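Appendix B. Raw example, untouched.
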Amino acid sequence: MINQAVDFVLSKINLYVGDRSKSVTVDVEYEIPKQVVTEAMYLRGAIERMGTGTEEMTKQCLVKGLGKPEFIPNHGFQTIIRRTTAPPVEQIPEKYPTINGQVTEQVQSLIKILFNEMDRNELQEKLHLTHREHFRISYLQPAIGQGFVAMRFPKNPNHPKQRYLLTAKGIELKNKITNNDKA
């Protein structure tokens, strides 16, 4: 880009073009040396000097509080710009909340009726629930999220033969719930 701008300016000035008597290339001499024109254009702000991009990059990094970039010449050119540290993230609320550190009533009722392996329809029938989405959001997802229930095909939640079963943690909770009901 710089060379095009300089060549444009120099093309408006007297120019001597040599001949090809000594080689296939032609010598070109300008009335004013190319370096003088380049310097004048740089001082006018029309172009950058070769290598001034790094100065500008350093200046902008310091303005933004990023510190000086690191320039590494290896098989080309590599620049490392350090990022600022991210502000602390607010604590994300628990996806499946519990009541006073206890398991919700919905999850408890699901755990009570779950025997061996059961599919979604069987679970909903036992709980007398008809709305599939409500069952999934209020019962199934919290129970899975808290580690009480596991899926037969965890990598494929929509598997046509998907079934649900109690985990060791779920069996332990089921025993506690049943013992409390008897007392």
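End of appendix B.
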